[in-house]
Design goal:
Immunoglobulin-like, five-stranded mixed sheet, about 5% helix, about 50% strand
Length: about 130
């Protein structure tokens, strides 16, 4: 199961990667990753669109997730320390949610759906690895 989840990471897309200066709180890079949220029978998942970026410490990433399923879905980002960084409210089918996070630490980040039993019973999660810049 772990291999399948990491495989989803390889489908993430980057749109408009921008190199920014490292002045103050400005991120090293800022970009958007598009996801699609799906639920079909017992398969609930985040599907990435396009190519995967190399996520690096200092990046500011905006996740735009379209709900292409039939149920409400949300998105929670959990850092390598196991603490939630940010959570976007659930959206209805056909809607899009947006969440922006700064990837400050290297390690594995979790993207979870917390609606009902989507994470606990349907394993609606994907993982991204952030490497040291």
């Amino acid at each position: 199961m772990q291999t399948r989840r990491l495989g989803l990471v390889l489908a993430l897309a980057v749109f408009g990667v921008t190199g920014c200066g490292s002045d103050g709180d400005d991120p090293a890079r800022s970009y958007t990753v598009e996801l699609r949220m799906e639920d079909h029978e017992d398969q609930y998942r985040y599907i990435a669109v396009g190519e995967v970026p190399t996520f690096m410490t200092g990046d500011r990433v905006t996740f735009e997730a379209e709900n292409a399923g039939t149920l409400n879905h949300d998105l929670q980002i959990v850092g390598p320390d196991g603490l939630a960084i940010e959570t976007a409210s659930a959206v209805a089918p056909g809607d899009v949610l947006t969440i922006t996070v700064d990837l400050d630490e290297p390690g594995i980040y979790q993207l979870n759906c917390l609606v009902d039993n989507h994470l606990t019973e349907h394993h609606m999660q994907t993982l991204i690895q952030v490497v040291e810049a």
